[in-house]
Structures are given as C-alpha cells and as structure tokens.
C-alpha cells in the first residue's frame, strides 16, 4: 500500500501576520502538492521571532512528513529561518561557494559595496541539496532530518515558484513514489452563479469520482476545476476531455476560458479576429473597464482609448451628451448611457462604444438607489442596447461588478456576430 504523506506549509514573516502581504505562497504550493497526491494538513504562519519559529518547527517535525518553509532566508536580522532550524536540529552550516560567488558577482555588476550580512544568504546546512535560485539571491534547500523532509524556500513568490517548479516537484515525485499521473483542467464561466452552475451539473458531480469536479466562485466568474488521476498522461487527459464535454453540453454557453485564460484576453482575441476596435465612456467605473482591458497584452490593437466622464460637465462638454437628455432623464439613465456609448464610439473612431453610468454609493443619486447601473453598447452597424443592473456591495464592489459585467456583455455580443 502506498504511503500517504502528510505535508505542512510554514510561512515565516511578521508581515504575513499583520496582513501587509497575503500568503499566496501557501495557496499555490497546496495546489501543486495536490497534483502529486500529497495532502497538505496544515498551513502555519509565524512571525519573525526566533523562539516562535523554532517552536513551530518542532511541532511540524512531530506531525508532518514533509515540511515546506517559505521566507526568512534573507540577509537581515529578522530573517531567522536558518537559525531556528539549526537550533532545533543541531545540524552544522557552511557557506555555499557557488551561492556566495553569485552574490558577490551581483554587487560587483551593480558597482555597489556588498555589506557583510549578505553572506548570510549563502549559508546552507551541511549535506543538504542546494536548490539554484535563478531569479534571486538566497538558494533553496532540501534537508532530510530524522526521516522527515524539510524544504526551505525564499518568500518572494517568483523565486519560490521557480525553485518549486524546477527542483522541488521533481524531487517530491521521486520521494513519494507516486505512480499516478494527476492532471487538472480549469473551466471558467461568466453570466451564471455558482449555485446555478452546480445545480445544472449536479448529477454529473454526484456520479464522478475520477475526475473530481470542484465548482469555485472567483472575482471574475465561476470556476470548475477537474482533476483526474490515471496511470498515464494520455488516460488522464482522456478523462478530462470526456467530463469537459459533458459539462459543456449543459452550460457551455457560459464558458469564457480554460486554465489561465482571462475574460479580458478573450475579448481582445475576438475583437482582433473580427477586426473591430472598442472605446469606453466611463462615469461610474472611472476607467476600470479600460484598465482591465489594457492590462492584457495585445490591447493596443483593439482599443482606441476611453473617456472618464465622471462630472456632468465632462459628459456634456467633452463627450457631447446633450443637456436636454440630462435635464429630462438625468445622468443615471438609459438615455444618458446610450448617448455616452454612441458618442464615444464616434469620437474615438471605433467599431464598438461601451458606457457605464450609475450609483456606486454611499448615497442615492437622482432618486436611483445605490447599486443601480446602466451599461450601454453602440456599434457602427446600428446595434444599440442598454441594460440596467442592480449590484450589491460597497462602492468599489459595485464598480468592479459593473466592469466585469461590461466585459461579459462585449464577450457575448462578439460571439453572436459573424
């Protein structure tokens, strides 16, 4: 019978406890370990205090088979990971020559003096496996101590991820002797809630044990993660494809991406494919829609730009919304949203114009309640449409949901045209 390895992840750093930095490392590591069939039983965060770090290490040594520690490998006095483990294990340390050479070379190239404390980053435990940090200074380490595996990694996410991908995962695959291939596929949906999605495929979820099906709500829609275990990658992929097809037959109209694809990327791809350009007039969202779009690569080929028209005078004098419309219907109205979308399309010589106006809060505007949002779309082939929404949440939540809904509207519109 294959041994079930218990893993634990310890994040070292007071900044994690204070909430100054989110512990995204633990989340990412847990996902990667799950793909190897390694169960993570505990996430621990401990501040930069030598005794507390040492205590956390002693507890982990007792209860876990694999302990991954992130953070505390830097050059300063509050980087205490090495010292705490040395106190617990009594293992000797030494200076790793390739690492100190690398550190010295860096400072030489920068033409700056290397302070003595930087040598600390090259300190490793005797007999450990040193992991080459290709994007930072401090190397990682794998230490076998009293039949337990200890893995020490920098806390900087890009450094940690490089070491895990290049060195840690291959090592753990061999160490655990896992004979199964574990493959995952992420399906991303928009325009359908988590509960509705789960209801539509509830019988598929109940009938499946391999792949497992896990619906998850995220900020940019709903995600379904499929995870298959098989003896070969080919068989695992076949299971994923089969289950994906079952799900697509039920809710495929709401799919916008797979794995790392984003809604913004998909909108840009469709705009490029159809040789269209988009412009935005943003009151409520204040530029969030264009920011979301422009943050994706390739946006320059499809986006003319946008006009942030938060003030009524900007709506009239810059965007050209008629004062008659505003007097008759107000700025938070279907009529204003339609003129905004139409005018920004014309002014910025675009195929599609989209507009956002509404009430983000904290108080109602023009008799409209907080969360009331109008999103208008105007195209150069005569298509005009305005939709009214009522979003719940605080000011920035309403603005964020309006931005996401705008992307969804454009995505669905582009899918309908030839």
From TrEMBL:
Similarity field: Belongs to the CinA family.
Gene3D superfamilies assigned to the protein according to its UniProt record, in alphabetical order: 3.30.70.2860, CinA-like, MoaB/Mog-like domain
Protein source organism: Oceanobacillus bengalensis
Highest taxon of source: Bacteria
Protein name: Putative competence-damage inducible protein
UniProt-listed PANTHER family: NICOTINAMIDE-NUCLEOTIDE AMIDOHYDROLASE PNCC, NMN AMIDOHYDROLASE-LIKE PROTEIN YFAY
Entries under InterPro entries matching the protein: CinA, CinA-like_C, CinA_C, CinA_KH, Competence-induced_CinA, MoaB/Mog-like_dom_sf, MoaB/Mog_dom
Domain MoaB/Mog stretches: 8-175
